[in-house]
Amino acid sequence: MSIDLAQIRQSFEKLKVIGQNEAGGITRISFSPEFRQAQVLISSFMETAGMEVEIDSIGNLIGTYAGRDQSLLAVVSGSHLDTVLNGGAFDGALGIIAAVECVRSWHEQNWRPLRTVQVIAFIEEEGTRFGTVCFGSRAMLGEFSEKNPESFIDASGNSLLGFLKEMGLGEKPFSKDSFFQNGFCFIELHVEQGGILEQAGMAVGVVSAIVGISRLVLNIRGNANHAGTTSMELRQDALVAAASLISYIYNQALAAKGNYVATVGKLDVWPNAENVVPGEVRLTIEIRSEDVVRLEGVRKEIIGKLREIQKDYKVNVDIITENQVPPIPMDDKVIHSICNIGKQLKITCKKMPSWAGHDAMIFAQHIPTGMIFVPSIGGISHSPAEESDWDVIAKAAQLLEGTLKELASNSEDL
Ligand SMILES: [Zn+2]
């Protein structure tokens, strides 16, 4: 094995304590002193691994291990360095540390890839500071070119430009000349954050696509009336209608055996009083699937069900808003590379969708992209109880190393 698990663990333990409270929760919000301290630490790891280190115009930390042919586009890896409030030690951090270890092992063996390999520690993936997920990767790939940087202000009134100034960065984070344009492909190692791989006997995950999301906001209007004097037959109870719809959505999704998930996560009930038949309910529906046809099919089924609900409960249902984010497939050739290396290394891999968003989802819209998932014990994430098995981490890191090596040795187009 060329990567050194002890090195990964050592780096991981050093990073873990930055922003950690006594109960084990980690808070490293982008641009905070803890975040900056973590950047300094990762920079030192990158330098030890033989990389040149820079911070781009938005605050992403980039380590560059120069290839033999610098006219070729670079193979890029990495993950995010920020955390949610009171998060875990593995989310994001593991993908950076594993990628740096791949390069460190090459540096130790004096191996120089044909293509340059870059490792990025992204800023603000969680969106905790400015409310936009994958902020760092979106910015570096030019998705904010139309935005005014002055419009980004956090909940305490701190501005993006103020933070950039503190870091000694310029005032034009979204200008065209700061876009990241030299990527050949992007591979992100990340914890699964769900329980599918654990169920699959701790296989390493190879992501097929980041799921798409279909969202609906509905308003169900019945009739608010006296909870004592209104007979059961005469009621137009909006909450009972909502409950029936929620059960339907849940049971349909349960029967789909993992092909999609659906959630009613938010309810507003009027007048929300103990002695009044609920007159109106507003609710959100969120459907996620990697299959765009299924996503649309489920949405249509739910809308079809609304007619029945209206009739059965004598209510009116209006769709207030609707929006869809399509699934983002990972690149077939990158998936093939990862699976092939997995076979060579005799690592059990399982293809699966990612049910959460990642920086890889942004990269996939620009360059060929793939993701490697490490199983999450108990499927827990965004929590101090986040945990993964070190033997499986070693396998996943070795898989990343083999894949990066193969892609960085490729002089052809993907
Ligand atoms: Zn993450």
TrEMBL record:
The free-text note explaining how the cofactor binds reads:
Binds 2 Zn(2+) ions per subunit.
Co-factor(s): Zn(2+)
Annotated residues that bind Zn(2+) 2 are located at 91, 126, 382
State the EC number(s). Answer: 3.5.1.87
Membrane-spanning ranges:
none
**Alphabetically ordered keywords of this record:** Hydrolase, Metal-binding, Zinc
Specify which residues bind allantoate according to the UniProt entry for this protein: 215, 275, 288
Among Pfam families, the record links this protein to:
M20_dimer (PF07687), Peptidase_M20 (PF01546)
Sites binding Zn(2+) 1 sit at 80, 91, 190
The residue ranges of the Peptidase M20 dimerisation domain are 212-313
User: Into which family does the record put it?
Assistant: Belongs to the peptidase M20 family.
Note the NCBIfam families from the entry: hydantase, PRK09290.1-5
Recorded protein name is N-carbamoyl-L-amino acid hydrolase
